[in-house]
């Protein structure tokens, strides 16, 4: 089984970290292929960058030359999953939805701890669109930019853990979702501070993708995710 794990930003060190996290839970015989988009922002922290990333991710997968069995979109609250499902019939798993759906198996309510406050509405909208918002106690911002997670890992852990503790104490969350692909590898340290289950979206998505492939399930093509209709495309792809 081969799973493409696609970073939404162009920072290769984040792609590598996401790939390592994905591989840590992959079953024997599952090949994890991390992909970095050819264009886009170094970090995705707003609507403009998210829409740009959606196109970049779709083009990165379209350009991959070998067969694959599933796709993981490794951006939290980002656009584009639906486009991937139109283009491909393999399972497409978004880490936002993977983390939230997994959290509901281990607690009545969950909270998301993300990076900057400006990304909170994007995540709330994605959870609502996916039908996963009813049991979301809160979406909290750590105040750490995506690239800060690499620059100062200890400060990142402290800021994320502080908001996770507040989510459990003040918002009555019973599980925590790490709301950024760049937070891969931090779950155990947040568990130590909170005492509740902490879900990493990348590992959750890989596990779900593997399960879907083993069940022989593919993306439905009868309506919503039918392939794009053939038509002339002006100046696409751009030179």
From TrEMBL:
Reaction catalyzed: D-5-benzylhydantoin = L-5-benzylhydantoin; a D-5-monosubstituted hydantoin = a L-5-monosubstituted hydantoin
Annotated GO MF terms: amino-acid racemase activity; hydantoin racemase activity
Enzyme Commission number(s) of this protein: 5.1.99.5
Enzyme class: isomerase
Family in the record: Belongs to the HyuE racemase family.
Name the UniProt record assigns to this protein: Hydantoin racemase
Species per Swiss-Prot/TrEMBL record: Saccharopolyspora dendranthemae
Highest classification ranks of the organism: Bacteria, Bacillati, Actinomycetota, Actinomycetes, Pseudonocardiales
């Amino acid at each position: 089984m081969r799973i493409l794990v696609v970073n939404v930003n162009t920072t290769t060190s984040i792609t590598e970290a996401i790939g390592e996290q994905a591989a840590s839970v992959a079953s024997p015989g599952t090949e994890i292929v991390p992909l970095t988009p050819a264009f886009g922002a170094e970090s995705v922290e707003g609507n403009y960058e998210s829409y740009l990333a959606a196109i970049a991710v779709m083009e990165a997968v379209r350009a991959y030359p070998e067969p694959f069995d599933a796709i993981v979109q490794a951006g939290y609250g980002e656009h584009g999953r639906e486009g991937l499902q139109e283009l491909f019939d393999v399972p497409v798993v978004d880490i936002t939805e993977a983390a939230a759906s997994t959290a509901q198996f281990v607690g009545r309510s969950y909270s998301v701890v993300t990076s900057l406050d400006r990304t909170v509405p994007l995540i709330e909208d994605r959870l609502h669109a996916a039908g996963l918002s009813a049991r979301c106690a809160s979406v909290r911002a750590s105040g750490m930019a995506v690239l800060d997670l690499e620059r100062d890992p200890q400060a990142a852990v402290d800021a994320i853990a502080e908001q996770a503790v507040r989510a459990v104490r003040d918002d009555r969350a019973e599980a925590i979702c790490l709301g950024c692909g760049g937070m891969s590898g931090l779950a155990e340290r947040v568990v130590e501070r909170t005492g509740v289950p902490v879900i990493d979206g990348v590992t959750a998505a890989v596990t779900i993708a593997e399960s879907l492939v083993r069940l022989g399930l593919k993306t439905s093509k009868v309506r919503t995710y039918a392939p794009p209709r053939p038509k002339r495309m002006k100046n696409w792809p751009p030179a």
